[in-house]
Amino acid sequence: MKKATVGAVVVGAATVVAVAALVARHRMKKSSKWTRARAILKEFEEKCATPDAKLKQVADAMTVEMHAGLASEGGSKLKMLISYVDNLPTGDEAGVFYALDLGGTNFRVMRVQLGGQDGGIIHQEFAEASIPPNLMVGTSEALFDYIAAELARFIGEEEEKFHPPPGRQRELGFTFSFPIMQTSINSGTLIRWTKGFSIDETVGKDVVSELTKAMQRQGIDMRVTALVNDTVGTLAGGRYSDKDVSIAVILGTGTNAAYVERAQAIPKWHGPLPKSGEMVINMEWGNFRSSHLSLTEYDHAMDTDSLNPGEQLFEKICSGMYLGEILRRVLLRMAEEAGIFGDEVPPKLKDSFVLRTPEMSAMHHDTSSDLRVVGDKLKDILEISNTSLKTRRLVVELCNIVATRGARLAAAGILGIVKKMGKDTPRESGAEKIVVAMDGGLYEHYTEYSKCLENTLVELLGVEMSTSIVFKHANDGSGIGAALLAAANSHYVEDKSGK
After folding, report:
1. Percent of residues, the chain, with pLDDT higher than 70
2. How far apart are alpha carbons 17 and 22 in whole angstroms?
């Protein structure tokens, strides 16, 4: 009996030792995985770093490229397109005008009633629709017919008081948020599609002509009197309410900037100088690139896999279409090399663009003690359940790295514009006021991003200049701006009473 008891004790002890060894190995393996995950995060953070010195180099590079783009066609990655907008709103505009705003995966149709100097904007109303994915890569006719049909529905439902008098056409400002070579205030040819659109047959065509033909097919009696980029429209809308607005930036699905330039500072401008002496320039800054940009292997891989490899690099690290995708690619590597979501890589995590920036923003803004929102988003979007708090915290850290880099680089871009305008240093009379009209879903809804951008620009300008910069959210500024520019270029200038 004693021998049996001793044997049982020995076997039991051996089992305990074996179990302890398994637990130790499991812990070591788990610890090793987290060490690898932290190493990947640290490497990513270092490559995304944007110290002030680097941001100032980015700003200087932006200024140099602006000069080059203004000097000649093709002289820079920045198109620096002449908008033909030389008469920004004055506040005297009156009447009923329409706007069509095609800015990305959604578009809006809008009606604005202007009351002149004393009336301001009396009434505005809009309808919004999404562009079906198949139309983003289909034919030009199908895309514009779809847009015109929505416009026809909007007009068909309006009250009689908005109908134009007999013999008078409705007038429309068309916000077209893609690179175009403007040939007049109401005509321009498409240079290339961006933001996921790819309809090659439209490139080189006059987009106003394409829209006009679609409206005619829908039986709409309407004239396009202004063709503007969304950023130019935002600048016009901002100027209507604040005469100090001189820069506009869109941060949404894509990104772009526009600003007011002295006409005599545009060597490639060959027309008569405008009476105002100024001209709005559409920079198309999404295509900016510089050796000083903080790029990572994930950015290069995403660019290679995109519909426009080698193009819109600045946009791909700053704008809403891409931030979530960058996050997904880092998480995928962590899942593959560090097993942060378990032994198997979640299949959904392999799907490009499955993780959108609004979801990234929601996770970044999660302030709950258990990061419940992060857990819910990972479960709902990526089908990853039972994530640990440690994993969720890691995800939030990554969100912060991606958003901070994008916001700080966008701030450096704005500094480049301020430098080009000669407003980056105080004058004898004091610092000149700089009002930047901002629009776009990324800026409006991703609070951590927008706060970081604003704070960064103030830091870069320095204490003495910090009070001179003002950011103004121009909500739907591009649509209202297009309607205002349609009014400013109305064919019925003899009757601006609105009656």
Report:
1. 92
2. 9
What does the alpha-carbon distance between residue 468 and residue 458 come to, in Å, rounded to a whole number? 9
Q: Which of 338, 342, 296, 311 is nearest to 46 (CA)?
A: 296
- Looking at the DSSP assignment, which residues form a beta bridge with residue 98? 111, 172
| Range 381-419 burial, b when 16+ CB lie within 10 A, else e | bbebeebeeebbebbbebbebbbbbbbbbbbbbbbbbbb
Of 76, 140, 177, 290, catalytic: 177
Tell me whether residue 329 is one of the annotated catalytic residues. Answer: no
SS (H, E, C) 137-202: CCCHHHHHHHHHHHHHHHHHCCCHHHCCCCCCCEEEEEEECCCEEEEECCEEEECCCCCCCCCHHH
Query: Which has more confidence, 307 or 131?
Result: 131
pLDDT band at 10 (very low <50, low <70, confident <90, very high): low
> Which of 108, 111, 170, 192 is the catalytic position?
192
- Active-site option among 86, 230, 299, 439: 230
Asked whether 111 and 163 are in contact (CB, 8 A), the reply is no
Q: Is 31 annotated in the active site? A: no
Work out the pLDDT band at 29, boundaries 50, 70, 90.
low
Query: Quick one: which of 231, 152, 251, 241 has its CA closest to 479?
Result: 231
The encoded tokens of residue 406 equal 């994008």
Q: At what angle do helices 320-338 and 389-420 cross, to 10 degrees?
A: 140
Which H or E run includes 123? strand 121-130
Cα distance between residue 389 and residue 371, in whole Å: 7
| Residues 96 and 164 sit within 8 Å (Cβ to Cβ) | yes
Is the model's pLDDT at 74 over the cut of 70? yes
Per-residue pLDDT reduced to its tens digit, 438-483: 999 999 999 999 999 999 999 999 988 888 899 999 877 778 899 9
What would the two tokens of residue 210 be? 């394409």
Active site residue 230: yes
308-326 pLDDT, tens digit per residue, is 899 999 999 999 999 999 9
Contact 192, 284 (CB under 8 A): no
- Given a contact cutoff of 8 angstroms between Cβ atoms, the answer to whether 178 and 307 are in contact is no
Tell me the C-alpha distance between 138 and 124, whole Å.
Answer: 32
